[in-house]
Amino acid sequence: MDLVCIGVNHKLCPVQIREQLAFSESDLPFALAQLRQIDGLRECFLLSTCNRVEVYGHAVVEVEPSLIDFLSDFHGVDKDLFEPYLYRHRGREVIRHLFRVSGGLDSLVIGENEIYGQVRSAFRLANRIKTLDSVLYQVVERAIRVGKRVRSETKINDRSVSVSSIAVDLAEKIFGRLTEEQILVLGTGKMSDKTMKHLVASGARSITVASRTYERALETAQRFGARPIGFDEWFRALQASDIVISSTAAPQPIIHVDDVKRIMNQRRHKPLCFIDIAVPRDIDPRVAEIDDVYLYDIDDLKSVSEANLRLRKKEVEHCEAIIAREVDSFDQWYEYLQARPVVEKLNAYFDEVVEQELQKARHQFKGKEKELDALVRKMKASFLHVPLEQLKERAQSGSIERYLEALHTLFQLGGRRTVHSKEGRTVKSEASSS
Amino acid sequence: MVRGECVPFGSRYRGREKGFSVRLSAFLIVLVIGIYFAAFVRYLFEFLKLRQARRSWAGRLVETGFLLHTLQIFVRTFSFSEAAAPLFYLPVRTLGETSSFFAWSLAFVYFILVKRHRTEGFGLALAPVLVLFLIPSLVPFETRPVLLPDLNNRYFLLHILSAFFGYASFALAFIAGALYLTQDRALKLKIHIDFYHNLPPLEELERFLFRTIFWGLVLLGGAIVTGGFWTKRAFGTFLLIEPKSLAALITWLAYFVIMLLHEVSLMKGRRVILISVWAFALVLFTFLGTSVFRLGLHVGV
Lengths: 434, 301
Description:
Chain A is 55% helix and 15% strand. By secondary structure, chain A is an alpha/beta fold. Chain A folds into 3 domains: 151 residues, 2-Layer Sandwich (Beta Polymerase, domain 2), CATH 3.30.460.30; 143 residues, NAD(P)-binding Rossmann-like Domain (Rossmann fold, 3-Layer(aba) Sandwich); 96 residues, no CATH class. A 6-stranded parallel beta sheet of chain A has the order 7-6-5-8-9-10. The longest helix of chain A has 64 residues. Chain B is mainly alpha-helical. At the A-B interface, α8 and α13 of A face α5, α6 and α8 of B.
């Protein structure tokens, strides 16, 4: 099989080199168009994310050095710089690798969903630029299907592993859907941003943002459709909130146990959830002792994250089994694909022989041409049925090559034929000439 | 069976059951137990698999079990009825029948009255409770003879039905409360949070709990009122001073106070739910405990 993949990822290659090889969204169409120009490359596909840059190809000749040159030339990076970190896959390994990538098994966070969307986007783009045709098209399309299967049939992404999404999950465990809850976000750091992104995705509609500088609160609030307030107003907002997410840079706690006790009395003990993602902590830990108050700090969230990650790792085995089955299924499809030209030739051979004999006997069937044609079609279908079914079966068991050779010899189908072995070797054979 | 005019339960009807109906009813009850048990196993599987499904297979099994149990109740009811009878019998004659009818009432309240508020995760706790209440129906208990006047009365039938549904509502509230408190503890202590992944969130449980208490109040209130109308007809007074009637009134008042505290926002969250869980002791006392006094109308019923 002439499938090839070269690439760098987060496991082997330092970020300083990865970022030099990454393709921006606007670069990708040009890069694909340029890649298509490589001699002997029938199909190509590019996957560029923050964790990986991979070039896939389906070629009739050796193209690996050309692909490395392409990466080097396009980015103006000396290939000596990235070659030591480069991985290369051929044939069946290319399929397995892309299936694992799409399933999230090769990701920094196992089972993450983002890569699935990225493979889909790259597939759409390659389709638009028309750099995919038959084989690589099937590989990428099946990789997307595998990504979906792995996520729906295993627990690989059942649990959140990022601190911000765990924070939102815990709030949902108390309040259910967050559409009616009043949410107060204290501080406008990177973590607050990530948490607000998850809150909005979970349907939260009433978010208030407080920051030491009103402008930052305003800027963050505008991005998430929230309400900005000045830092002097946060305590009043706290009294009306159901969920408080705090990540200020305050050197000591800003939310004290006595204040929360007073607030809980005013709330008649309606549950109140605090998520403290600040270091040092913003909320006095004794707050957790009050009835109906739920407090989670960064260590709590991290321990949940680690537990969820362990759960995901346990699922890798199930995912690998699915991937192995899908790779086998692709092999069968590919083996049968190789039989297509032979089947077409066999059909043509049969038509030719029948036509020759019919010419001799046609005058005996004058006025009954339609019936004769129907009879010939029926006979042809009956004659070819068993051999074609056998070919399909052999394709499934991976031993089609011998049969194709036999057909060539027995029926003198002619021509020089290329057979691709499972391991990716290209075997050229001379069929008996006509 | 509840019917007749001042006749001992069971004595008059013993031996009248049609053979086929009895066998069908026995088969159905075994089938229902099997289905509820399968639902429980499936719930456990879904729970441990940590998959949250909106329409789980376990939920469908419980629904199927409920429908078959309803059919069994009908078969049981009509297999004892006489053609000329103006009312049909309720199968609450023996301990086994009473227990089975209570299980059916639990499922009825869950599937019909609080349909909008139910969640799949709650079924995990409900399915084993239904199995437990159905098991006594497999044992052939003796029919308890009870002498009561004017049983052939619509008020009496309504009284029995609404009392069962009322107790079932409070039992569901108790289960929801127990789930709330266990989960609250896990969330507070940050232990086994994962274990509770598939259970409904705290606020959903609270809403479900107070919805069932609302129906419990309406239905137990209905049982008290219809019981009053029946005693007026039978004994000439609306209220007979006897243990079960008094206990039912106290239970109704206790739950009314709990509901009031919650609805006027005087008390929310863990405390009011803890009180509601304790209040279930009154329901148990009213439903089962008053029999020990062996006084009044409800002896043996």
